Amino acid sequence: MADQFKALIEQATGRSVRSFMSETDLENDIAVEMFFLSGERTDMAAFEQASEDVSASSDPETDGGPETGP
Hints:
With 70 residues, the chain is of the alpha+beta class.
């Protein structure tokens, strides 16, 4: 599973995974997956803008719906 997790993180971030740690606390039903990344940060501006555009299009105040107020 570690290889699949690392590949997914590398694809999503554009950075290589330097280290991966996984821990499960069965008694408290908690799991933690930590990824330590290497290399420079990928410019995610286009991705972030697309996310903002999607959020704005679902905002009732900006989707052309009925306006409220005076």
